[in-house]
Every structure is written in structure tokens, then in C-alpha cells.
Amino acid sequence: ALALFETCGDSWGKAMIVHHLGHIAADLDRDVERALALLSDSLEQFAAIGDAWGVAFSRRCIAYVIAGHRRDFDRATPLLEAAAATFRQIGDRWNLGVTLHHLADNARERGQWAAALLVYQESLANHWEERDALGVADALLRLAQIQAALGEAETAARFFGCAEAQHERAGVRLREPVRAGYEQTIDAVRAALGPRGFAAAWQAGRSLALEEAVRAALLLAAPTASLNPAGPQAVPAGAELSLSGRERDVLRLLVEGRSDREIAAGLSIGVRTVHTHVAGILNKLGVSSRTAAATRAVRDGLV
Questions:
Q1: What's the CA gap between 63 and 70, in Å, rounded?
Q2: Which end of the chain has a smaller Cβ tally under 10 Å, C or N?
């Protein structure tokens, strides 16, 4: 396919094939160095033809490899945030949902439960907007893990049951490494509820309309600081009122998916000043990423 695209002079096709070769190197060959080289090459090719979607797609997949194979979440997160900003700007809700899911995974892996919950909720909302039942189910599985960690065993069991029903309807089986991680949590939830309580909650989740599950998931509150010692503190009631006028201006542009340079140009301030305002916003909202800040702003009507 690559040779044919080269013969045809199809630059976009070449970039996409190189991208897929990168995935093969990562997922089948477990050759991380080759995978990153190929994915970086695809990013450069997409950038050369001015394809913002392709650049975002490659950034997300590079981050996926860095986080999944190297466990380097600090390096992966900015790539995911940049990809999410692009997908949000061009209106690609499905890819935004997938990217946010990976971003939330990074926060969860670092023990940042509050940030992870907010971003999983935004991922779920985007998948629901696209009526992507499997995307919704994947978000419910992650939210179930968080609820289990917070001691909300019944909610966790209901979300697990609902997700299982969606996978069965689609004829999809979770990959074994993923399933092993969920089964450990499910065992803990079963022990907390007892056999009868667990069975009742699980069946209630299986019978739950997907729309009702989505509504319940989007209403989940972020964990408190006492339940999240490793992650950012929860935002106390009224904390958003401490945002300055300029911070609200910056936050509004963050929600629109603008880069720091675009924010600086739009507000006629320096890029370093934008960095300072963004840091202040993250600190006041108790989140660890620009995406989590944007998610909270939309959810709580801060802008």
C-alpha cells in the first residue's frame, strides 16, 4: 500500500500507512523504538501537508506508546492535551473522546483521581453525543474502577454490569490484560457487597438504559482530598469565585482549545504571562491538566 501511494503521489495516504506501520511495530512486534520513529515520521508528514487532524492523530498515538510501553505519563500528557485541543477545535467528537480517555488514564495511573474522573466524564459525554455505545462502555468501566477505589461498591457494580451488557450486544470481548485488571476490581466489589448484593447491583446495571447510566456517571462528584492523597485536591465550594477576571478570560480560551500562543495573541499579553495564568487556574481548580480545567469549567459553568 505504501508503494502504491508513493507511485500515486498521495502524501496523505503515505502518512497514514506509515502511521499504521507504527502501530504494528508497537502492538505486534513490541518494538517501541521503531514504533516511535514511524509515528513521529507520520506526524512530520501530516504536518508537511498541513493536516491538523493527522498531526493530532499521530500525537495521540505517540503518547499512547510512551504511556503504555514506557510508563512515561509526564511526557505523554502534553501530547494528549495538544491532540485533544485540535480535535475539540475541529469538532471531531469521537477522536476527542478517545484522546480524553487516554488522558484520563494517565491521571488515574498517577493516582490523580479527581482529574481522572472529570476527564473520563468528558470522554463519556463525547462518546454519548456520537451515540458510540462501546466508547460509553469503556468510560463506564474506568469510572467503575474509580468508584470502587472510593468505596462506592454498588455504583461500581452497576457500571460494570452496564458495560458488560454493551460489550455483549456488540459482540466484543475485552482483551485479556485489560480484563485481568477489571476482574481484580470486580472481586473487591463482590467482597464488599456480598454475593447477593453484588448480584443485585450487577443485574441492575445490565438492565439499566444506557442513557440512564450516562446521566448517573456525569453526575458523579469528584473525590475529596482525604480520599485522594496522591492527586490534586478537590475544589472546595465557591473556589471558582477566586478566579481573577484575566484568569476567566484565559480559561474561556482554554475551553475553546486555544494554544498558549493563540491565547496570548487574543488577549494581547505575553506567552509567559499566559503560562502563569494557566498555572494559577490549575492550582485554584485543583486539577493537573488544561483539559481537566476546561472540563470543569464547562461542567460547572465557570465561563
A1: 10
A2: N
Q: Report which DSSP code applies to 29.
A: S
Q: Which long-range contacts (CB under 8 A, 24 or more apart) does 37-42 make?
A: 39/65, 42/15, 42/16, 42/18
The neighbour count for residue 260, using CB atoms within 10 Å, is: 19
What tens digit of pLDDT does each residue of 67-89 get? 888 888 888 999 999 999 999 88
**Distance in angstroms (rounded) separating the CA atoms of residues 100 and 119:** 6
CA distance 27 to 31: 8
Span 222-233, pLDDT tens digits: 765 434 333 333
Contacts for 229 with CB less than 8 Å, ≥ 6 apart: none
Q: Which amino acid is at 287?
A: V
Whole-number Å distance between alpha carbons of 289 and 284: 12
Dist CA 160 CA 35 (whole Å): 33
DSSP 234: P
Q: What is the secondary structure of 66-87 as a DSSP string?
A: HHHHH--HHHHHHHHHHHHHHH
From start to end of the chain, where are the E strands?
none
Q: Enter the pTM of the model.
A: 0.69
The answer to whether the CB of 36 falls within 8 A of the CB of 66 is: yes
